[in-house]
Amino acid sequence: MTRYTLLFTFASLLATAAVAHAQDEGTTPPEPTPPVRNTLRRDIEPSLGTPAPSVQTWLYEQERKRYLDPKEAVRRNAEYRAIQRQRRIESRNWFGYSNSRPIASPNPWYDTYSPMWTGNSSYPYEWSGVGGPAVVFHPGWTSVQY
After folding, report:
1. pTM strictly above 0.85
2. Which residue ranges make up each domain of the chain?
3. Mean pLDDT, the chain, whole residue set
């Protein structure tokens, strides 16, 4: 086995030497080309037409026109106020408060007059509703029922 390996090695060396010897010795290698500088081409005349707008440019122009239009500004402000009003109405509905039938305590000295936020630095999100639990007392009962 080693004899075949040795024979194959010599054959490959001879083939490599024959290829190296077959190259022409009379030719000179090509001269290296000078490095190319990236410069602006000034030989082309600039076009006088407008470039085709991209999608982003078109969207920017539309937004700018919309922003500068006074009618659009009035409409945006009206929409903003309408959204705020709708959120106030929804929050009042969530808390069960209605302006058509306001909730007020008959005794404002011992209770809050109407539901409101009474938060302070310790309890910033405290909501004071109307009164405490209703106490019902019936003369036949032996204890107070809540």
Report:
1. no
2. 54-98
3. 74
